[in-house]
Write a structure and sequence with these properties.
Layout: E1 2-5, E2 11-16, E3 21-23, E4 29-34, E5 37-40, E6 45-50, E7 53-55, E8 61-64
Antiparallel strand pairs: 1-2, 2-3, 3-4, 4-5, 5-6, 6-7, 7-8
Amino acid sequence: MEPLYDRQGRVRAWLQEEHGRIISLQGCHLASIEGHSVYDRFGQHIGWWKNGHMRNSRGAVVVWAADAF
């Protein structure tokens, strides 16, 4: 698993890339990545994943992996 960072550089979640999942620091499933779309655990579209980072519905980057560009 790969850490996902916030604007302050803190680890906020884990990326389980091989399964397309975002996991909380406590190990709970938070979201799924399907193609470039990100869905919460209830199936609601919450953003986009591309180039190692996630953008919310307003287009703001909310988390990113170390190799993001």
